[in-house]
What we know:
2 copies of one chain form a homodimer. By secondary structure, the first copy, chain A, is of the alpha/beta class. The first copy, chain A, has 15 helices and 11 strands. The radius of gyration of chain A is 21 Å and the shape is globular. The first copy, chain A, has helices spanning 15-27, 39-42, 70-76, 81-90, 103-113, 151-169, 190-200, 214-217, 227-255, 258-266, 268-278, 280-283, 304-319, 322-333, 346-349; strands spanning 2-6, 32-37, 55-59, 96-99, 124-130, 137-141, 175-179, 205-210, 222-224, 286-289, 294-297. In chain A, α4 (81-90) runs parallel beside α5. Chain A has a domain at 1-123 and 280-320: Isopropylmalate Dehydrogenase. At the A-B interface, α8, α9, α10 and α11 of A face α8, α9, α10 and α11 of B.
Amino acid sequence: MRLVLDAMGGDHAPGAPVEGGVLFARAHPDHEVVLVGDTAKVTPLLGKGLPPSNLRIHHASEVVEMDDHASTAFRRKRDSSLRVGFELVRDGHADALVSAGNSGAVMAGGLLTLGRLPGVERPAIAALFPALKGGGRSLLLDAGANVDCRPSHLAQFAVLGEAYVRLRLGVARPRVGVLSNGEEPSKGTPLTREASELLRQSDLDFAGYVEGKDLFSGDVQVVVTDGFTGNVVLKTSEGVGMGVVGLLRQAIEKRGGLSEKLGALLLQPALAGLRRMVDYAEYGGAPLLGLRGVGIVAHGRSSPRAIHNALGAALATAQAGLQEELTRCIANAAAWLPTHQRGKKGTDEAVSD
Amino acid sequence: MRLVLDAMGGDHAPGAPVEGGVLFARAHPDHEVVLVGDTAKVTPLLGKGLPPSNLRIHHASEVVEMDDHASTAFRRKRDSSLRVGFELVRDGHADALVSAGNSGAVMAGGLLTLGRLPGVERPAIAALFPALKGGGRSLLLDAGANVDCRPSHLAQFAVLGEAYVRLRLGVARPRVGVLSNGEEPSKGTPLTREASELLRQSDLDFAGYVEGKDLFSGDVQVVVTDGFTGNVVLKTSEGVGMGVVGLLRQAIEKRGGLSEKLGALLLQPALAGLRRMVDYAEYGGAPLLGLRGVGIVAHGRSSPRAIHNALGAALATAQAGLQEELTRCIANAAAWLPTHQRGKKGTDEAVSD
């Protein structure tokens, strides 16, 4: 397999992507990593020794910046690392792309370059959450690509997410829920109610409405929502996680006794294990589901290790035959999911940035 | 002050409310607690000794159950503890009401009995979050009363929340944000964009868009959103909190060594301090802002201690002159906030259940 890595995307680019790409290439001699970016900036970062033979640089002179308007920047910067990278995938020169850039821009790039899988109305950003049961992971989508959704979009997110969890997390029959403000059917909005009606007619294992806390319980493995709510949930979870750690530190410092320090020291390995479980860096990034090609968005703050893991996720996804399975599932879903007319402007509308 | 306590509301009613009411009455001999509920059920719970002289029971034969349709149940059950309790406040026999019942039903009851403060379009449920800075608390509203909001509703939530944080949390000039899926002005939905435009013209300290994580950082003290998103955020935060604790326990058990057990033991006081900070029981419940009277919703799972603290919050709120301040601020806001026509069905529409 050949994996494209956007060397210029992310808060710590090009340093972190280059280092992560080298790590991955050394660990996977049977596969190839293509670093796409400014050769003059990337080359010095490869270090003194000989770079791995399965790593090469593909020059691209421009960069889509984190604060650029996603689709506009992607269109204007024709030689951006993101665009050139996606074109390599589109033209069959590579099997997957990883970028730690602005997720809106990566999705816009994927839509404009690769397009959508047959029958997919709106590709979605899928985010993995740590869960206490059920395989230890749950998937939330859309996590931010589509602010404005129709019921059929949510139903398709369910189909895409179910296939991903089945193939990638090994859950035989993932349970699917619609995120709402309560479990009773009378709750929710017109969007959640109509999406639930569609999903009740599906062949998925549909749990009905679920609440934010169910993401972490593991009782459901796939949770669908619009991209506005999904993004708010994602950022809230990050906030609580950081907040809990910060509050614990404050509590320890405030007491400041020897026993607290010793306790923190003794718990260090367990806390490190916890951090690994909730750390985005371990997850391998957020897959973009529904594009005609494998794309993974790594967190903007990605460390080399996070980039390494995102490449691993991209490799596993490409090898799992996910694209074929997604296409098959979306086609099957036509039996219960009415198809909507896709306007010509669909590509633009699908990207919020 | 005389405080009404709904003895029949909550998962552990009437036991927990009665016990919490007795606790509060004993601790506050200068104030009075009125337990509203079924005398036959409440009386035996008062214990053997003489109940405090400042605690009395007011009989009500019916109960609004947790799974009742909120406004329908409130209308039909004319002798429910919730309705009778609100009528005591409405008729000037009490200064505030506390209930651990269904928050939708409590809000519906408040709207149907007390009505709204002059100029208020939609009263909101306000939820307190623990924050690392800025006074240690932030306020999110609406946390679930109004699923379907207009921009002017969000702007009024900001006015109500700002006054609450100023008077109750002692923050001199609270900073206000609109919850969105990113900080850039291009993000958000039509609702968040129009609400932000209104708030930019206000005399509030407006921070623009904020993300879920900002609730916990303390950089803003008031965060406004629609009741659907707000409720999802509230439940997600509860889920992460429980999830982190559960994951830590799993990590400790999995390693299971002596040092982990000793570490957990030594950290016990710090962890207990942390639990107090994030525990809803300590907060004193969620105030209903914009009603013509003081109403507090305690968590459904409230312990006697949580009920005790909610009564304390109700007392402090009634003493702080919050209602007068809210009325003044809503009237002042008319200078920058266009008033909308209020339909006759406003009371119904405002309650989601």
